[in-house]
Q: What sequence folds into this?
């Protein structure tokens, strides 16, 4: 698995279980992340540049005494990721990249509030989408729902990937392998890794206090990706569409709580 904003390259790190106090701080950071996406949504219209979205996100985040985690992370140059059409993830906002009618764009935000990360993303329509784009985005969002539904104490990480892979491939789409979900707390990316494919009954068991993301990247065509010369932007090898949705979660005593909700 490649290094980057959505992979984990430290397999020897232990899985951290958060206290109730720490989980409350994660809730606050997650709520802020969700509110940031809500703020950006009406701005996502034909004619706006991805750099304008980035700059608005940075301004909004700073006004709330938070920090944009992606900015400077392993050299990433901007505050959010903006992944348009065939970009799978880690798209870099650019003044020359102007959104057009019919585009799809994933916006990935991670504010740090009081030391904790709220990590979430959503794929938006720019104007009216094509039928194939609409179907891909709807299936990807459903993949996230089905992955979340697999989380409960005693179940295993592989249950998430199995549910997502079964549904996505059943709809005629493919699941990206190179980029995965990840543990998140005071650290941006840590254990456990959360693949969006796999077998049930495999991987670490879920325990109360675990916090991590599920963020399936689903492709219209082939699952394979390649990274552009900027060393960040990952695109589909066949240049077909890709979509993604992401939430940060905490395992509870009897199930799971989504931390990146606006309410």
A:
């Amino acid at each position: 698995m490649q290094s980057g904003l959505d992979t984990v390259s430290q397999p020897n790190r232990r899985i951290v279980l958060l206290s109730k106090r720490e989980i409350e701080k994660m809730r606050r950071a997650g709520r802020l992340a969700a509110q940031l996406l809500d703020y950006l949504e009406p701005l996502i219209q034909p004619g706006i540049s991805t750099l304008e979205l980035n700059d608005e996100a940075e301004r909004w985040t700073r006004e709330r005494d938070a920090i944009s985690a992606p900015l400077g992370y392993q050299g990433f140059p901007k505050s959010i990721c903006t992944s348009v059409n065939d970009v799978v993830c880690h798209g870099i906002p650019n003044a020359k990249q102007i959104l057009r009618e019919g585009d799809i764009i994933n916006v990935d935000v991670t504010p740090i509030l009081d030391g904790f990360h709220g990590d979430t993303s959503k794929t938006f329509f720019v104007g009216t989408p094509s039928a194939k784009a609409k179907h891909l985005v709807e299936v990807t969002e459903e993949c996230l729902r089905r992955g979340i539904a697999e989380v409960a104490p005693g179940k295993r990480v592989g249950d998430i990937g199995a549910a997502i892979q079964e549904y996505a491939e059943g709809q005629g789409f493919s699941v990206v392998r190179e980029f995965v979900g990840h543990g998140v707390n005071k650290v941006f990316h840590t254990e456990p890794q959360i693949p969006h494919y796999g077998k049930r009954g495999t991987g670490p068991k879920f325990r109360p206090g675990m916090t991590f993301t599920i963020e399936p990247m689903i492709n219209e065509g082939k699952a394979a990706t390649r990274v552009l010369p900027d060393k960040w932007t990952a695109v589909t090898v066949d240049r077909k569409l890709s979509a993604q949705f992401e939430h940060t979660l905490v395992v509870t005593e009897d199930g799971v709580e989504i931390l990146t909700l606006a309410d």
Summary: The longest strand covers residues 104-109.
